[in-house]
Design brief:
Number of strands of chain B: 10
Structural class of chain B: mainly beta
Strand content of chain B: 35-45%
Order of helices and strands of chain A: HEEEEEEEE
Strand order of the largest sheet of chain A: 1-2-8-7
Oligomer: heterodimer
Largest sheet of chain A: 4 strands, antiparallel
Radius of gyration of chain A: 20 Å
Largest interface: A-B, 56 and 44 residues
CATH class of the largest domain in chain A: Mainly Beta
Distance between the termini of chain B: 49 Å
Number of helices of chain A: 1
Number of strands of chain A: 8
Largest sheet of chain B: 5 strands, mixed
CATH class of one domain in chain B: Mainly Beta
CATH architecture of the largest domain in chain A: Sandwich
CATH topology of one domain in chain B: Immunoglobulin-like
Strand order of the largest sheet of chain B: 1-2-8-6-5
Strand content of chain A: 25-35%
Chain lengths: ~150, ~140
C-alpha cells in the first residue's frame, strides 16, 4: 500500500503507518550514526529549499530556511492543494580586492512545488519572512476541518 | 559571476556537529556556512544562521580564536503536529583561528535576514607596508 505520487513530491500522509515508519527510520539512522559515523542520506525531496510542514486543526504551517533572501524576492503561490516557492538567492559581490579564505555560501535560483495533504483556503494564506526563516500559514478549507458533532438526546 | 547566478540552488542538509562542550539544552548543533574574506584593512565573516535572533547570538574573540554560537528557538507552536520534516533546528556553533591581530574595539556585527556580517578590522601593525630595501 505504499503510494508514491509521481511528481507530487513525497507522500506524507501522516495518518498512514508509513509516516510513523519514516520517523522510526530517522531515529534508527541517528542511532546507527552514533556508532558508525554519519550515513549519507538524501533529503526527502532533494529540492531547495528544505521544508518543514506542521498542522493544527485550523492551519498548515510550511517553514523553510532562506537566509539572506528578502521577502520581496520570493514568489509564493498556492492553489487548492499545491504550494510553489520560487526565487533567487543573490550574494552581492564584495570588494574586488577581497581575498577569500572560505566560500561556502551558495547563490542561485530555486523553485519548488509541494503538494499539501488537503485543500486549503487560498484567499487566506499568509507568508512572512523573519530572521531568514519563511513561514507560510495555509488555513485549511472549511470542508476538511474536523467538525464536532453533538449527539442529541431525545 | 554571471555563470554562477544562473545556477540552481541545491538542497543540502545542514551540517551537524558534535556538541563542542557541555550543553545545558539538548538538541542538535549545526555548522553555519560561511564566507570569509580579507582585505588589507579587515577580515569579514558572513555566516548563514537562519532563525537566530540577535539576542541569542554570541560572538567571542579571545587569543585569536573567534567563536560564533547561536541558539534557535523552535518556531513551531505547541499545538502543531508534524506532517513533513526535512530539516531540524538547533544551535549553531563554529570556531575559527585568526592569524592576525584584530582591533577588538572596532569589531562590528550585524544580523540581517538570518545572515551575520562580522567586520574584524586588523590592528594597524598588521596592515602590510611596503618595505624599501636600502642599498649601500
Amino acid at each position: 500500500m505504499i503510494i508514491r505520487r509521481i511528481g507530487g513530491g513525497p507522500t506524507w500522509e501522516r495518518r498512514s503507518p508509513f509516516g510513523e515508519l519514516e520517523r522510526m527510520r530517522r531515529e534508527m539512522d541517528s542511532l546507527s550514526e552514533a556508532f558508525t559515523g554519519p550515513l549519507f542520506r538524501e533529503p526527502l525531496a532533494g529540492v531547495f529549499p528544505l521544508m518543514n510542514v506542521t498542522e493544527d486543526p485550523d492551519n498548515y504551517y510550511m517553514r523553510a530556511e532562506l537566509p539572506g533572501i528578502k521577502a520581496d524576492e520570493l514568489n509564493i503561490s498556492v492553489t487548492g492543494t499545491s504550494l510553489t516557492i520560487a526565487g533567487e538567492r543573490a550574494i552581492p559581490a564584495e570588494n574586488e580586492k577581497a581575498r577569500y579564505h572560505r566560500r561556502e555560501r551558495e547563490a542561485g535560483k530555486f523553485s519548488r512545488v509541494t503538494s499539501l495533504p488537503s485543500q486549503v483556503d487560498t484567499s487566506k494564506a499568509e507568508a512572512r519572512c523573519v530572521d531568514g526563516v519563511l513561514t507560510v500559514v495555509l488555513p485549511k478549507a472549511e470542508v476538511v476541518k474536523p467538525k464536532q458533532i453533538s449527539v442529541k438526546t431525545s | 559571476m554571471a555563470e554562477k547566478e544562473r545556477m540552481e540552488l541545491q538542497a543540502r542538509e545542514k551540517a551537524e556537529v558534535r556538541a563542542p562542550a557541555e550543553q545545558t539544552r539538548s538538541g542538535p548543533t549545526f555548522t553555519p556556512a560561511v564566507d570569509i574574506f580579507e582585505t588589507d584593512q579587515e577580515i569579514t565573516v558572513l555566516a548563514d544562521m537562519p532563525g537566530v535572533k540577535a539576542k541569542d547570538l554570541a560572538i567571542d574573540l579571545r587569543k585569536n580564536t573567534l567563536t560564533l554560537a547561536g541558539d534557535v528557538e523552535s518556531p513551531e507552536g505547541a499545538h502543531e503536529e508534524e506532517v513533513l520534516r526535512e530539516y531540524l533546528t538547533g544551535k549553531y556553533y563554529r570556531q575559527f583561528t585568526l592569524s592576525e591581530g584584530i582591533d577588538q574595539s572596532k569589531i562590528e556585527a550585524a544580523l540581517k535576514d538570518g545572515v551575520l556580517r562580522l567586520n574584524l578590522p586588523k590592528v594597524q601593525a598588521a596592515t602590510p607596508r611596503t618595505i624599501t630595501v636600502k642599498t649601500g
